Amino acid sequence: MMMDTYEAYLTLRGKTEPPLTIFEHSSDVLQVLDYLIAQNSTAVQHHDLIRTAALAHDVGKMAGDLSDGRWVHTPHSAKFLDSLLSHPRFRELLDIARIDASKVDRGLLLKICERHHCQSPELLRSCKEAVLVGMADALASAIEAGIVGHVEEILRRSPYLQVSLELIRSLGFTGGLAGEVHYLDLPGQFIQDLILADMLFRLLAQDLRAAGIAAILQRGTRLCLIGPVQALRDALNAFAFDPQYLYKSFFEDQIYDSILTQFPAGSMQIDILRYVLITEPAARSMAIALYTRDKPRQLLERYNLSQLIGEAARIFSGGLSEGIDKLWQPIRTRLLELAPEVSVR
User: Is the pLDDT of residue 243 over 80?
Assistant: First the structure.
């Protein structure tokens, strides 16, 4: 059976190294673009257009045209773009990203998709912000490949950005070029690691901003940050949180009271996280929550792990009690193992 356009967008390869789907890479580019927009807010006018371009810029890769290991996608963009934009699930994705599709000029969008590596003078006269899509693509590609260092140097050396930084500055986009890229890595072997990392990154965000550190991209249990590395280490060393807030705010109930009341507010350091969920009732509750509550389900879908929802149905097929028994033990075991294997690069 032939895939429709959106299924191709979700599943076909968009990056070879590391192997990422078109959707995964495009989501990364949107995150980086949002950072660049925030850094250049007064100079950006076509927000909906360029944010849509971030999600659709590699639409031509659906043709699967590889030549000597390099993607040839510009000639194929027009073939797939309208079909993708008209697909109800892609329009739902635009809604989730808070993009007003009615404000997007499709002709201009196609030009950005075709020319996002090397924008023409004509395109830049029509929409100078198009250059930010190329910057976001280059920076996201470097981050995905594990490259760290100063933003300017990363962009200068990128094979994906074929316009000069001098031109970018002359267009009025000076924000976001300074700073240094670092990674914060948490353990990421199991699905529950993704849930915990996402909660921790949310709590860390305010402390990081106060320390002058900006989050630019989150992928799984890795958070990409821009700022001084010592400030990042200091923020992590000082990080503490109220465990009741951590879980109640995420799952929107009080299933952890029996454990959480043992810890006074603000007392829990990151290095004792593994002691939060070690009892059978709490682990059983988390097993249920992972598969039955909206927010965890949305998180699974965000990381393209929605197949685990179907796996849960298979596990629970023998009955709720038996299903819980199968799920809570590995979750409990992993949480016990979850010493702070945190690395910063």
Answer: no
